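MOLECULE: protein
FOLLOWS: sequence and fold
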Amino acid sequence: MDQVTQPSATTAPEATAWKGPLAGLRVLDLTRVLAGPLATQFLADLGAEVLKLEAPERGDETRGFAPFVEGESHYFLALNRGKRSMVVDLREAEGAEILRGLVAGADVLIENFRPGVMERLGLGAEALMAINPRLIYCAISGFGLTGPLAGAPSFDIVTQAMTGVMSVNGAQGGPPVKLGLPIGDMSGGIFGALGILSALHERSVTGRGRLVDASLYDGTMSLLGYLSQLAFITGQDPQPMGSAHPSVVPYDAFPASDGSIVIACLADHFWPRLCRALDCPDLGADPGLATMAQRRARRDEIEPRIAAITRSRSVAEWRRILEAHDVPHAPVLSVREALAHPHAQARDMVVEVEHERLGTIPVLGRPIKFPGSAQVPLTAPPVLGQHTAEILRRELNYSEETIRDLRERGVIDRGAAR
């Protein structure tokens, strides 16, 4: 893919730039894989200092997910920008003591182990909040801390299956299909971060922290949105419809001569515009198609007619025509096309960072912007254990001799990159 990296309008040299609205906030990140790392990556994007405590030898499991670039996993690189890594064995008494020492000066701790794991280590919410009553402890899990499935293992596809998401995804009449995006895991990360920010606001009033219980299950189910209400009021299950919409017509991906073009007439006033763009005056003049409800009832007549017309021209041609008639539309882009799009570049959604091992690499940019306040540039995902010694020196005043001894005995940096 040709990378087009434009000068950033929202970043500036660190010496002069704003770190973000969460500047000064310290987050202890004990998470792995996707949901937790996504939550802490959002907090880092917003200016928080995120210390990622990784297990000895392998670190975050995603460091072992192929494909690799010079030994670094694409998966880990995608979810850990802006963080610092230290390797600590929490099963060792001295490792647990390091965590307790860091907790004393932390604002947030976030973990996504199965419920009960941290308690068995003596590092659960109650124990750590006794050290620091201002601590916000966020536990992200598959099914939450309570309920009949609380201890059950869960991954993204399990979440999508259990929340009804898979049942409405895929082609009409076809088998259930998992979304290409890991929406189950991602919902845990998004709502975990939202819960933390809410608890921080409360703490600004009460002075006390709180346990935040975020789950992939709850987050994904909450995203059912109007589909849940459709089931409530009709007593029927929504069905998969491919790219179409259960209520809005036309609202779908249609074939062009060299790809696909999305047409989305979410309001009635777009319908006559589309009919003019398609050169179908009979459809536009038909009083039986003037409203959304009428078009929905005649979906099987309208959509094949549109598809037959759109096949006659290229995506580029349809884009020019639909734009001229102010009809909502979009080409169906590949991931590489989306990343290279001028709007993605203009919005700083693709930026370059300097990685310890890989040099200059592209990563996704911050999804939230703050006009008028330039933030410091993003930093690269860390190599395993890149910052262990630095953090122990600076935060806990460990001597070089103590650090060397802990390293030699495998309490810290076991398996870390050298």
Notes: Residues 137 and 211 are 5 Å apart (CA to CA). The first helix runs from residue 35 to 45. The two ends are 31 Å apart (CA to CA). DSSP finds 18 helices and 13 strands in the chain.
